[in-house]
């Protein structure tokens, strides 16, 4: 019989392209994740992955089965929601995925207090992830409600914007003179630190340079903004960071910013459309609206 935990591991490895990263995302050991994949390969009778220089690449059969696994996990989430609806009282575990944003953390603290007061049988868990990992976790059923950075909600999700974030172009402090008078072509040629494709950071970079027919010179790809800022401060390259963080580092002489180059994007709250009728999800969204009004 198929184990849903094994299917979640399978989907995560396909999305991450790497067994260790998938295991970290799912809070399990790498040997446990490896065991899940081997068990599924034994069950299906086909190889799901092949190894390459960067990690694991799904086989053609693996890709087809991953699509089916996603459908099974989605159906399971719908079934769980229906069961909660039939129970008539709210209980169970609800997982919130969120990006690192101090203003949002204050709201989440108020939300946790609201849930404890109004629905004491609901167990809450909050996981910190980058935006891409939040949306992947929503689709894989690892997260019930997610907060992530993006101009719009991804396909298959409903929700609303809870705030806006301004990103500024930051560089090592000793580049200040070098950047005076630099044009778009000059900036693109310098070493850049970026987040992975599909993230809000990557969309900002592409959106600003594509109209000029340019692609930036990527020196390093990192998984989160904290690493990005640290690498900028260390002199590795330049990249987009949140305005509040940049101002603090500029005041401390740790980096400089490029004048007049910034971008504003949304901070989104999203749920899978198929989960909208789940009572525990509706409860959390009600609580979020309630604390926003106070």
Automatic annotation (TrEMBL):
Note the Pfam families from the entry. HTH_1, LysR_substrate
- What sequence ranges are listed for the domain HTH lysR-type? 2-59
Matching entries from InterPro entries are given as: LysR_HTH_N, LysR_subst-bd, WH-like_DNA-bd_sf, WH_DNA-bd_sf
Keywords linked to the UniProt accession:
DNA-binding, Transcription, Transcription regulation
Spell out the molecular function terms from Gene Ontology: DNA-binding transcription factor activity; transcription cis-regulatory region binding
Q: Which family does it belong to?
A: Belongs to the LysR transcriptional regulatory family.
Its protein name is Transcriptional regulator, LysR family
Q: What organism, scientifically named, is this protein from?
A: Acidovorax delafieldii 2AN
- Please spell out the taxonomic lineage of the organism that makes this protein: Bacteria, Pseudomonadati, Pseudomonadota, Betaproteobacteria, Burkholderiales
């Amino acid at each position: 019989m198929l184990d849903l935990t094994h299917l979640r591991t399978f989907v995560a490895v396909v999305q991450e392209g790497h067994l260790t990263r998938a295991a970290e995302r799912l809070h399990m050991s790498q040997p446990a994740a490896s065991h899940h994949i081997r068990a599924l390969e034994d069950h299906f009778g086909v190889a799901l992955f092949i190894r390459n220089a960067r990690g694991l690449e799904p086989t053609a059969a693996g890709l087809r089965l991953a699509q089916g696994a996603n459908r099974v996990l989605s159906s399971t989430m719908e079934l769980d929601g229906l069961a909660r609806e039939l129970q008539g009282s709210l209980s169970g575990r609800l997982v919130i995925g969120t990006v690192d944003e101090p203003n949002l953390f204050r709201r989440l603290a108020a939300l946790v207090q609201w849930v404890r007061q109004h629905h004491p049988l609901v167990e809450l868990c909050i996981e910190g992830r980058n935006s891409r990992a939040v949306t992947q976790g929503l689709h894989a059923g690892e997260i019930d409600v997610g907060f992530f950075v993006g101009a719009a909600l991804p396909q298959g999700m409903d929700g609303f914007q809870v705030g806006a974030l301004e990103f500024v172009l930051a560089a090592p402090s000793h580049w200040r003179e070098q950047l005076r008078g630099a044009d778009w072509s000059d900036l693109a040629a310098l070493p850049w630190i970026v987040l992975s494709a599909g993230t809000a950071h990557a969309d900002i970079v592409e959106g600003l340079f594509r109209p000029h027919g340019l692609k930036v010179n990527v020196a390093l790809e990192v998984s989160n903004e904290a690493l990005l800022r640290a690498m900028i401060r260390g002199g590795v390259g330049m990249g987009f960071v949140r305005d509040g963080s940049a101002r603090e580092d500029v005041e401390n002489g740790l980096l400089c910013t490029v004048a007049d180059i910034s971008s504003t994007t949304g901070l989104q709250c999203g749920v899978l459309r198929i989960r909208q009728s789940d009572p525990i999800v509706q409860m959390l969204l009600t609580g979020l609206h309630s604390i926003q009004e106070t």
